[in-house]
User: Fold this.
Amino acid sequence: MNSFHFAAGHLRYLLIFDSKGAEPAASLRNSLINEGAEFKELYAGSGRDLKWISEEISSQKNGTCLYAALETGLLEKLETAAVCAGYLPEEIQFIPSGSRRRIFCAHCHHISITDCENPPVQCSSCGRYLKVSGSRSGYWQAYLAVDREAF
Ligand SMILES: [Zn+2]
Assistant:
């Protein structure tokens, strides 16, 4: 599982996570406490939907840094909500909490959503069987994946 990068210098921090995102959330919480940062955390358990999260993030004051470790589908919607609420890209860090990932096919540039716990991962556009790398593109909001035969 990836971990959050603590970005110092923000006025306050908002941490949103679900049960599968508890691990990166705990490590970030330690950093926030060690740094004496002002922060609020929201547990997005069952029954907590996008509307609730959107209201929470838009009610935060400017200068808040947003961290979220949630299921991939929810993160995508949350990103739109965060941008609408006025968050800058450098104020947002997301980690997909489950095994579902957005993957960017290096061969046809198609983005698929796949379950990395159930290989093989197949590109839904060109049909290649892919190996998912650990490098994630912030621009594409996806993990780079290349033909597994290339390894
Ligand atoms: Zn492809």
Notes: The beta strands are 12-17, 39-43, 64-70, 92-96, 100-105, 111-115, 121-122, 129-137, 142-147. The domain at 12-96 is CATH 3.40.50.80 (Rossmann fold). The chain is about 25% helix and 35% strand. The two ends are 23 Å apart (CA to CA).
